[in-house]
Design a protein that fits this description.
- By secondary structure, this protein is an all-alpha fold.
- The chain folds into 2 domains: 53 residues, no CATH class; 116 residues.
- Helix content is 80%, strand content 0%.
- The longest helix has 39 residues.
- The radius of gyration is 20 Å and the shape is flat.
- The N and C termini lie far apart (49 Å).
């Protein structure tokens, strides 16, 4: 997994993307949308395949143990993100930036701190053949619950930001 990340950083715009020949002839900016599309399709197929490998009974048996762990793993980063957001909001306000709505900013920042790297975790568990073990099922179910709560929080933040934006227009 680490080598895949390093290869992406080296091949991508961070390292080789700064070389004119590479960015104009090998991977021009017009090809980025296609790479994103292929990557997203690959991710969808990988997650679908992972879902086929998981035992539904094992995950159903783990939910009582998964729920408290998932809640604790989202609450702590969420609280840290919210505290950090208050600090960042004040820093941006002092520097003369036009700040967004405070509540929406805090919700977005806190949500962003509470997500897991679910596909990365799934890849690690799949490559080590741990998805069918009790600890693998517990880990996957905790991460899935964590991401569900994180996406719900992000949807709430987006709805709140839209509401404040609409109210600001009137």
């Amino acid at each position: 997994m680490i080598s895949e990340i390093l290869a992406g950083v080296i091949i991508g715009p961070s390292v080789l993307g700064n070389i004119d020949f590479w960015s104009k002839h090998i991977f021009p900016a017009s090809s980025w949308n296609y790479f994103t599309l292929v990557g997203n399709i690959g991710l969808i197929l990988f997650m679908f395949n992972l879902g086929l490998e998981l035992e539904r009974k094992e995950i159903q048996n783990q939910w009582k143990a998964s729920l408290p762990v998932a809640i604790s793993t989202i609450v702590i980063p969420y609280a840290v993100g919210a505290g950090f957001a208050f600090y960042l909001y004040d820093v941006n306000n002092q520097n003369g930036f036009d700040p967004p709505d405070r509540v929406a900013f805090v919700l977005f920042t806190a949500s962003s701190m509470s997500f897991t790297a679910f596909p990365v975790l799934a890849s690690i568990l799949s490559s080590t053949k741990l998805t069918s073990t009790p600890i693998g099922a517990l880990t996957i179910s905790c991460a899935a619950m964590n991401d569900i709560m994180g996406w719900c929080s992000l949807a709430f933040a987006g709805a709140f930001a839209k509401e404040s934006e609409i109210v600001g227009l009137w």
